[in-house]
Known about the structure:
This protein has helices spanning 22-25, 40-43, 46-53, 71-83, 95-107, 116-119, 182-200, 208-228, 235-248, 262-274, 278-292, 298-309, 316-333, 349-359, 373-383, and strands at 11-14, 31-35, 58-62, 88-93, 130-134, 146-151, 156-161, 169-172. By secondary structure, it is α/β, with parallel strands linked by helices. The chain has 2 domains: 11-175, Rossmann fold, CATH 3.40.50; 181-382, Dehydroquinate synthase-like, alpha domain, CATH 1.20.1090.10. The strands form 2 sheets. Strands 1-8-5-4-2-3 form a 6-stranded parallel beta sheet, with helices on one face. A two-stranded antiparallel ribbon has the order 6-7. A hairpin with a 4-residue loop joins strand 6 and strand 7 (156-161). Helix 7 packs parallel to helix 11. The longest helix has 21 residues, at 208-228. The two termini are 37 Å apart. The relative contact order is 0.11. The site of zinc ion has 5 residues, from helix 7.
Amino acid sequence: MQNFIFYxxxxxxxxxxxxxxxxxxxxxxxxxxxxxxxxxxxxxxxxDQVMQALAGYDVSEFGGIEPNPSYETLMQAVGIVRDKxxxxxxAIGGGSxxxxxxxxxxxxxxxxxxxxxxxxxxxxxxxxxxxxxxxLPAAGSEMNCGAVISRKSSRDKLVFxxxxxxxxxxxxxPAVTFSLSPRQTANGIVDAFVHVLEQYLTYPVxxxxxxxxxxxxxxxxxxxxxxxxxxxxxxxxxxxIMWCATMALNDLIGMGVPQDWTTHRLGHxxxxxFGLDHGQSLAVLLPNVxxxxxVQKHEKLLQYAERIFGIxxxxxxxxxDAAITKTREFFASLDMKLHLRDYAIDxxxxxxxxxxxxxHSLTGLGERGDIDLNESEKIYRASL
Length: 384
Ligand code: NZQ
Ligand code: ZN
């Protein structure tokens, strides 16, 4: 196992009815800004629950944070935070609203051009503290300190992170996820699944506990997915999916092990250029990353085949093929499309995507930093 430092200060309130806990969490004299998306929270009762819990507080609102939150939109919220001297932000939504809120928190007191936080990893000092009410289990943003922000005008989708942008708390009520569409439910399950694989399917470093954690999440997602897929109201299954998604990317399973974020990095470019949902991009790319990198990931692929899908028979290549096929079948069982052409993306996209990778200095990806543009091209071509 490699050396590591683990730090995660996010307080989790988990379970049905936990939104009511908000009343006791925030300092009474706070000037609070609620941030949210396009309005799902007003249809499914989450907004009402939050407002009830915040009765008596000074509350302002900023709605309209879009999926793949944009710098352009978020800077409007930064203006409100500055004008109204907001001292606490409450994000209510999925990864996009929470990530967007992380950026607002970092940008509000930033002295220079806040976009530098994304492009130059510019240091920021004072942040506006924030908490969140999670409505979509997927990104894991509720319990980590990273965020992904897009800029429409330049087709960028970039990552930043800092311990300063951990949420102060996260409220995880699985009942609020009953209203998710099948598409968003599936996107979330795939995202969590791929988060685990990006930290697990590398090469062995004798870290059996991390492996077992990862395998536990993968198996639970596979077992619970059919219970929520196109079904609204299985609270236990929704709770299990929600906790899986949080545990998949709160850094715990990735401690002391190599990581490979190739699928995510290549997927971000697909989203930035062609607008696929984050989960959609991952379902297309991940099986092809495994295929193209099967030599480098040989040992862990065999472990994945055996422990997740029970594949023990046949020679090693046959077992690895079978594991990749099973992975595709799992995604397909959630109606995820498996090819770029399913989204009307053809080979003319490849140079565009490679140029994006080059521009973003993503030319040494993978757990060993050896996925150059040639290798990325193979993955994109295999994904057509
Ligand atoms: O905008 P509203 O009306 O709220 O609708 C949202 C949105 O359209 C809807 N939704 C959310 N909760 C709902 C609901 N609809 C009905 N009932 C509910 N309870 O779902 C749609 C998608 O929401 P979004 O927040 O975009 O989805 P997700 O949680 O998948 O987040 C995706 C973003 O997270 C980033 C992605 O890149 C993408 O930008 N990621 C962030 C990570 C992180 N911070 O660590 C890691 C991830 O790999 C990921 O990259
Ligand atoms: Zn993801």
